[in-house]
Every structure is written in C-alpha cells, then in structure tokens.
Amino acid sequence: MTKLCALVLACVSLAVDAAQPPAPNLEGSWQGTLRVPPALELRVVARITRAKEGGWHATMYIDNGYPIPVESVLVGGSTIELISNPGRYQGEINPEGTSIRGTWVHGNPRPLDRPFPLELQRATRQTAWVLQPDSSPHTTRYVTVAAGASLEVLDWGGTGRPVVLLAGLGDTAHAFDQFAPKLTSNYHVYGITRRGYGGSSAPMTGYSADRLGDDVLVVLDELNLKKPILVGHSIAGEELSSIGSRYPWRVAGLVYLDAGYYYAYYDHSVATSLGVTVDVAELERKLDQLRFASPTADPRALIQDLLSKELPNFTQSLQALQRTLPPPPPTEAVSSPAPVQRLSTIGEDVIAGLQRYTSIPVPILAIFAAPHELPPSTGNDPAAVAAADAADDAFTGARAQADAFEKGVPSAHVVRLAHASHYVYRSNEADVLREMNAFIRGLPQ
C-alpha cells in the first residue's frame, strides 16, 4: 500500500510538472526606454547570462553605457527581479519570452522614487542597441565605507602624485571619463562616485556634508593614498571643505571646479536665490534640536543662539536676497505660482545636509565660472550680455562669491573664467589644466 501511494504521488508530481510552463530562457540582451517625467528618457539595457553554479548573472547599462553589476537576479516562474546598487527592476515575462513588462524603482535598499514603468524587449541581432562603450581607460572597484554602503571607485592610472576627482550633484565619477586621462601623464588619477548615484550604494542615511566627506576619507585609507590632491566639481565643494576644515593634514591641496559656493565657503553677505538654502538647512537643524530636545535638557543656550545669531542672520539673508530680486511683472501678482520641480530624494538629502564652512586652512585653487556662460539669445548685444550677467549674479552669485572666497580664505588662489560653463573642466579644459598643473607644481613635496 505504501509503495502504491508513493507511485501515485510520483505520477501526480510528474503530471503537475508537465502542466507547468518551462522556465523561460532569459539569456541575452533586453532593452527599453525609461521615461521619467517631465522629460527625462534613459535607455536601459540588461544583459543576462547563465551562472555556472546555476541561476543567472546580469549587468545593466543605463543611458551612458557604463556597466552596473546586478547583485541579485531572482526568477520565479514568469517573474524576474534585478537588484543593483542604483535600484531594482521587477517584471513579468510574457509567455513567448520576448518581453518583460515591469517597473523600475531607484534606490536600494529603500525606494527613493515611485515606480516608473519600464518594458524590456529581447534584443535581436537586428534590433540590438549599440551602446556607447565606456572607452575611458580606467579600472573599477567598490569600496565599503559603512554598513550597507559601498562606493564605485575608478582608477585611470598614471604616475606621480595622487589626484582624486569628485563629481557634482547627480553625476558619477564617469563625468570625468574624458577629462581624467588628460591628467595621467603627471598624476595618478582616481574618481569616486558618492553614495546614492551610479554604481554606488543608496542607503537610507548618510548624506550630510561631513558624512560624505568621511566616505571620501575611508576610500583614501582603502587605497592607501597619502596627502592626495582632491578635485571637486559643483556640490563636491562641500566634501572638499568638510575634509579641509576638519582634517587639513590629510590632503596636500584642494581644487574647486566652480565648486566654491555657499555649500563650500559660507559668507551670509553673498545673497543669492541658491545661497539662502544653507541658511534654511542650518536653521532647520537648530529648530529640530529645540523641538526634539530631551525634557531634561536645558534649551537656554540654543535659544540664545537662535535669538542672537541664527534668526538675525537668516533675516539679513532674506532681506539681501529680496533686494536682488527684480520687480514682478504686473500680471504676476494675480497669477498662480508656478509649480516647484522637486529634486530626487537623494538630492534633497544632500541639500538638507548642507553645512557652513568658514575656515579651510589648506592650499586651495578655486576656479569660478564668473559670470557663467551666456544664453545663445544674447548674441553680441551689450545690453543683453549685461542683463544675463546680472541674472547670473542674482541666481548663483558667482562674482560676489569668488570675491568673498578670495578675501575670506587666505590659502586660496582664486581664478575667474568669464562666461565659462558650470562644467568648467569641459568648456575651458585648457585653462583648467594649466591652472591645476601650476597649482600642483607649487605644492610642497
């Protein structure tokens, strides 16, 4: 009887297995376009191969073609999930095995955005996209900087003093793919992608300026780099100032590539529509300290600081900003305010983590696009050029900030490149290389 039951169960099992559709063959390239409102379109390619030990391996390529390793490929019946540092993709494979309909969510382990639809089609020889290869001559490794956080580190090689490149907000170290090789004849060049972007992890916390600076220091330790030159573009100036103000002995020098703004050197007299952000971040931190203080804590010192310093400074910043604003057109008083386009959550975390830096006792080269590039519509009209420069002064305060940086940081050599792009190392590559080489040659060995 027992043998008969076992035989019946085996037959039932075989019948059930036969009724199940065979597991789809996922091997190959899958491609689709990720559309993020209002107007961002990113090409996504997932290349899936069989693992020798069973299961699957995958690599993703997003837009610019550089590879992002997929940490885990989970397949269950007709469903698939690709988990990587930048985010995760979950989809349903169609019965023919020719397409996957699913959603992409940025962020791992936490979701940072709502899911966006992404349908991947199996690529054929005729339809496969030709990705722009990552032809920049670097190697890639990942350095763990904290629990649940590893950073993508690029190494372009070269000989000489170590130079470490840090990208601006939203960019990765690959932003320097064309620029970095121009440095390798004189220096050993590295690049670091900050947490939250590219192939680096996107943990739930750790986006304050000092924490991001600490991430860089962990990478320097892992690479055994002694007194490198740190080069930062845009908001990477906050990491430069964080390290330079707290650990000046760790670096030989700092190079700010249009990166010496309010988040890198604070002067509340420079009023711009961007600069007031750091005042807001600092005020919010101190108000939160008051709001969430322990019942047994004595709040008097904090209240005195708010009354005597923080609130008066904030009032002055707002008043100075108000004076820079042009008068509104007559129709603006009755029109509805334009909707504000929010940054991604990672960007908001970085902005919320802004800090004030006023003392940076390290040799510094600060290159400013002051004022920034002109809109094409200005042409050669002097009045249009003057108006564009005034608008840049109100928005970025580049010229005023360059003056404040030069006056307030005695160790800084400030260079102003009129009408350069914010990406000064691209628009004015020869100027930047010349200034960097002269600066580094003048540093103590």
Q: What's the helix and strand layout?
A:
Blueprint: H1 2-19, E1 28-36, E2 40-50, E3 56-62, E4 67-76, E5 79-84, E6 87-93, E7 99-106, E8 116-122, E9 139-146, E10 149-157, E11 161-166, E12 187-192, H2 209-223, E13 229-233, H3 237-246, E14 253-257, H4 276-291, H5 300-324, H6 345-352, E15 364-368, H7 382-395, H8 398-408, E16 412-416, H9 424-427, H10 429-441
Parallel strand pairs: 11-12, 11-13, 13-14, 14-15, 15-16
Antiparallel strand pairs: 1-2, 1-8, 2-3, 3-4, 4-5, 5-6, 6-7, 7-8, 9-10, 10-12
Helix pairs in contact: 2-3, 4-5
Structure commentary:
- With 445 residues, this protein is of the alpha/beta class.
- It has 2 domains: 28-122, Lipocalin, CATH 2.40.128; 139-268 and 345-441, Alpha/Beta hydrolase fold, catalytic domain (Rossmann fold).
- It is built from 10 helices and 16 strands.
- It has helices at 2-19, 209-223, 237-246, 276-291, 300-324, 345-352, 382-395, 398-408, 424-427, 429-441, and strands at 28-36, 40-50, 56-62, 67-76, 79-84, 87-93, 99-106, 116-122, 139-146, 149-157, 161-166, 187-192, 229-233, 253-257, 364-368, 412-416.
- The protein has an 8-stranded antiparallel β-barrel with strand order 1-2-3-4-5-6-7-8.
- Helix 4 (276-291) runs antiparallel to helix 5.
- It is globular, with a radius of gyration of 26 Å.
- It starts with a helix and ends with a helix.
Rounded Rg = 26 Å
CATH superfamily of the largest domain: Alpha/Beta hydrolase fold, catalytic domain
Q: How much helicity do the residues have? A: 25-40%
What can be said about the biggest beta sheet?
A: 8 strands, antiparallel, barrel
End-to-end separation: 88 Å
Number of domains: 2
How many DSSP H or I helices?
Answer: 10
Number of strand segments: 16
Q: Please, what is the average pLDDT?
A: 81
The CATH architecture name of the largest domain reads 3-Layer(aba) Sandwich
CATH class of the largest domain: Alpha Beta
Structural class: alpha/beta
What is the CATH topology descriptor of the largest domain?
A: Rossmann fold
| Low-pLDDT sequence parts | 1-20, 338-344
- Which strands sit side by side, in order, in the main sheet? 1-2-3-4-5-6-7-8
- The percentage of residues in β strands lies in 25-35%
Globally, the shape reads globular
